[in-house]
Amino acid sequence: MTFNILWLQAGSCGGCTMAALTAQDRGMLAALKPFDVNVLWHPALSLESGQEAVAILQNVLDGKVVVDALCVEGSVLRGPHGSGKFQMMPGTERSMAAWIKDLAQQARYVIAVGTCSAFGGLPMAGGNPTDACGLQYEGDAAGGLLGREFVSKEGMPVINVAGCAPHPDWITETLSLLAAGRLTRERLDVRARPRFFADHLAHHGCSRNEYYEFKASASQFSQLGCMMENMGCKATQAVGDCNLRSWNGAKGGCPDAGFPCIACTSPGFETPKGSFQETSKRAGIPVGLPVDMPKAWFMALAALSKSATPKRVLNNAASDHVVVPPARENES
Ligand code: SF4
Ligand code: SF4
Questions:
Q1: What spacing in Å lies between the alpha carbon of 204 and ligand 1's midpoint?
Q2: Separation in Å, CA 186 to CA 162, 177, 192, 221, 252
Q3: pLDDT, tens digit, for every residue of 314-330?
Q4: d(Cα 166, Cα 17) in Å, to the nearest integer?
Q5: If exposure means fewest CB atoms within 10 Å of the residue's CB, which of 9, 97, 137, 291 is most exposed?
Q6: What would the mean pLDDT of 275-279 be, rounded to a whole number?
Q7: Beta-strand pair 107-113/159-161
Q8: What value does the mean pLDDT take over residues 191-204?
Q9: In this predicted structure, what is the pLDDT of residue 332?
Q10: What is the rounded CA–CA span in Å between residue 71 and residue 260?
């Protein structure tokens, strides 16, 4: 049976659509074809614009067309003064917030594509001048535009495909699982992110794992060492299987590409305690420690690891290429 999706862009940079267009190297539409997914309307991909587009939305509101998944990209801008007028739906007298609120009542599933629509994201930074929020969260607090108690027609909360931007496969896998009737509430984590990616940490699969184990750290870009100690990498605390997948045809996510993880799948990532690229510390100890690890254990393990760091790892960590290869004598 055809699975209809309707995609709206709220307060968004369009990056989540850009991500979706790279899915599986052939784009979201091709990737979803085997699941009989039909895009009712997408602001960047559909031919309809103006009143033709409004007519599609109105047909959904009137119950003439079933929308299986309402996908919203971008934060909902509620300002000024709760009017939502910072973002009006072109060709209508209504705010985007009002359209989303009404269309969500008609949808079998509602999907927040990206951290902005999930938790508020970047538009909430800097004092949140547009009164931005997510669909069902405002930062870490449940609520947002639709409210804590909202469930879609299938009894599901808003499904948060978090990430800035999310990995394209997270978008297409969520939609294909829904189309196949295989994404249930139990398969969402505590913040309603699909567990197929949220049960991992972004740290998993990073090519710098050996440097992490020995606490051999990079102190500037291009160096090979682990970026947790000095350069703000939060991958040991951020959910996502980013480094276990390929991105744009290349291996791994941000740390593999040489950039510290900024925990873009988490609420509040947009307002770090310090700089994005510098590790916040208290008494010389990183403020953000790996999940599941008591501080005392981390301290003890870090001290032990540092005392046992092989010279090869130590030297390579501070270099932009391997300067000391692995020893050959024990080679079998
Ligand atoms: S750079 Fe980040 S992701 Fe890579 S090993 Fe270090 S903490 Fe983990
Ligand atoms: S590695 Fe971190 S910043 Fe990069 S996509 Fe994954 S969670 Fe986001």
A1: 8
A2: 17, 13, 9, 40, 28
A3: 999 999 999 999 987 76
A4: 10
A5: 291
A6: 93
A7: parallel
A8: 97
A9: 61
A10: 29
